[in-house]
Amino acid sequence: MDKMNLHLIDRSNYLKGLFITAKLDRQLTQPEKDILKNFSDKLGFAQDFYEETVNSLLSNKYLLEEPIIFSDPKIAKSFVIDAIKLACCNDLITVDEIDWLKKTASLNGIESIFIDKEISNYKNAEKLNSLGNFALFSII
């Protein structure tokens, strides 16, 4: 499955979900910006779209924090894993981020224990060495 086979709505929702995840802790660090840029590029979004969204992210009242529903369980699981990596990249994952990820997971048929396990796995693993080491990139 490449980005052309990944439906536009799933690509949009994936990036939107990552933006929401980054926004939930009310701070936007450089590692988060780098990860968001990497996804924006890989998913085929324009540079100016990325820049405008990042620059207004924390104050954007129109980016609703509704849970995301994906068309395929494999994409949803990939999203949850990648969103956890994004949330943890600043060494802090908040209750708001965890709750939102659990709601999104639940709507996509993923048990909340999966979230807890992935957070634990990530915290116990070596820090992310490469921006290319994300779940979605292995399926697109």
Helix count equals 6
Q: Which percent range describes the beta-strand content?
A: under 5%
Largest sheet: none
* Spans of at least 5 consecutive residues with low confidence: none
Number of strand segments? 0
Shape: globular
Order of helices and strands: HHHHHH
The portion of residues assigned to helices is 55-70%
Using only C-alpha atoms, the radius of gyration works out to 14 Å
**SS class:** mainly alpha
Distance between the termini: 5 Å
Number of domains: 1
Query: If you average the pLDDT, what whole number results?
Result: 88
Provide a short characterization of the protein structure.
This protein has 140 residues and is mainly α.
